[in-house]
Specification:
This protein is mainly beta and about 150 residues long. About 5% of the residues lie in helices and about 40% in strands. Pfam families: UPF0179.
């Protein structure tokens, strides 16, 4: 998908979280290319940077570049019984209120409950769950949103 990003941020491989449009974007002539393709709360990875630039009052340099992006793959912890490489799952968060080092993987940014995901890689079992859940760390590709 094509979008626009600040000139200084336009680097192949860069990942970014889209939090939503700035107020100044509402009436921008580039809105349909810049922010309309992006979904709030998702992480994107820049696949390619084009040479085309446009003016933008939001970004530090006053310019944006055209980039091709894709939704980034997300590392997460899931039920070990569902952790088969190549399989498609509906992502579900665990019922947990513990504060631990694993929390960011149990509730990863950029993915939402009931997203359809393909398990690209199974990194194996983690043995650190305070709740006693049997979890595997996996790399997920978001196939479709909720």
């Amino acid at each position: 998908m094509i979008t626009l990003i600040g000139e200084k941020l336009a680097k192949k491989g860069l990942t970014f979280m889209y939090y939503g449009p700035a107020k100044a974007c509402e009436d921008c002539r580039y809105k349909s290319v810049c922010i309309d393709p992006l979904e709030t709360g998702r992480i994107y990875k820049i696949k390619e940077v084009k040479d085309t630039e446009h003016p933008c009052p939001i970004h530090e340099s006053g310019k944006v570049k055209v980039v091709e992006v894709e939704k980034a793959n997300i590392e997460a912890l899931i039920d070990a019984k569902k952790a088969f490489e190549g399989s498609v799952i509906l992502f579900e968060t665990l019922k947990c209120d513990e504060k631990c080092d694993m929390r960011s993987l149990c509730f990863p940014e950029g993915i939402k409950a009931s997203d359809r995901c393909r398990i690209l890689k199974n990194f194996g079992r983690v043995n650190e769950c305070k709740k006693g859940y049997k979890l595997n760390k996996v790399l997920l590709e978001i196939i479709s949103k909720k």
